[in-house]
Amino acid sequence: MKIKRIGIITSGGDSPGMNTTIKSIVNYASIYKIKSIGFKFGYRGLILNKYKRLSNNKVKNIINLGGTILGTGRSKLFYTKKGREIAYKNLNYNNIDGLIIIGGNGSLKGISKFSNEYNIPIIGIPGTIDNDIYGTDLTLGYDSALNSIIRSIDKIKEIASSNNRIFIIEVMGRNTGYLAYYSGLALSPLYIVYNNEYNINKIEEYIKNNQNYSNIIIVAENKYIGNASKLIYKKIKKNINKYEIRKTILGYIQRGGSPSCIDRLLGFLFGKESVKKIINYNNNIVIGVKNNKIININLNKLINKKKKFNKNNLYNTYL
Ligand code: F6P
């Protein structure tokens, strides 16, 4: 059966590179005379049958835009059988014969159920700044977020120097320390807290013996760590009087903005590969990248596995 119409959904937290991927899907699909439509605000749009027709002309100038032109969201209804039933009816109603989802772990979990229940090719693309998806070295948006973090923290370091302050800076990443660790390597901080094995007394010691080496401590937001930045800030503020201590939560500034070169390239490759898979009627696949090669990850395997934090040996050797 020839695929004629595909649906695209961006779901969960947006990430830079989602728009590049949408453009890649629409452009590549059009070569095979496949029409693309984009559902609005994640799975919610699929359930409410709210969509936009996409064309090469409509996606011409979106390559540099952060966020997602389709909107995104986290739909509770899609996690119910009833919600997925409505979603499937809408796909049929619109004559859609393939679906591509760009999103994080939660969004990919959603499609795993759906594709086991209904017979339609569904392909996932890992889109999240957190880089926490099993099986892929990189997720869309991670590199852009790293770049946003280092640009923002460079500015904070200027304030820290001018005011003789130490800043505790919390960065995003949900339950993993990728953003904290790898941005930290590029910022020369006093300490990086990227998992729950940090030592608060050591941090204090580093500040006391600082010798102007650095003025920042980077801390991963991490629900397992249990609000580490707050605890560290409290303890250090109480015990250190050589410096003024400040705390900053970097927040959503990390998630917005134009995608980096790497995220644009990933977006193009992920988009193209996902269309190829749909054309071949593949199902239950998430596109990823491993050792610089585009790979396919089994969706059912992915949702049951947690990505292990991976320190790159190259940096361990030289820093
Ligand atoms: O998953 C991306 C992310 O930005 C995480 O780093 C963060 O914990 C979370 O989303 C914030 O979620 P929300 O946009 O729902 O506040």
List the helices and strands and how they pair.
Layout: E1 5-10, H1 18-31, E2 35-39, H2 43-48, E3 51-54, H3 81-93, E4 98-103, H4 105-117, E5 122-126, H5 142-163, E6 165-171, H6 178-185, E7 191-193, H7 200-208, E8 216-220, H8 228-239, E9 244-249, H9 261-279, E10 285-290, E11 293-298, H10 299-303, H11 313-318
Helix pairs in contact: 1-9, 5-6
The chain binds 6-O-phosphono-beta-D-fructofuranose (F6P).
Structure in words:
The structure is a single chain. This protein is α/β, with parallel strands linked by helices and about 325 residues long. About 40% of the residues lie in helices and about 20% in strands. It has eleven helices and eleven strands. A hairpin with a 2-residue loop joins strand 10 and strand 11. Helix 1 (about 20-30) runs parallel beside helix 9 (about 260-280) and helix 5 (about 140-165) crosses helix 6 (about 180-185). The chain is elongated. Bound molecules: 6-O-phosphono-beta-D-fructofuranose. The site of 6-O-phosphono-beta-D-fructofuranose has 10 residues, from loops.
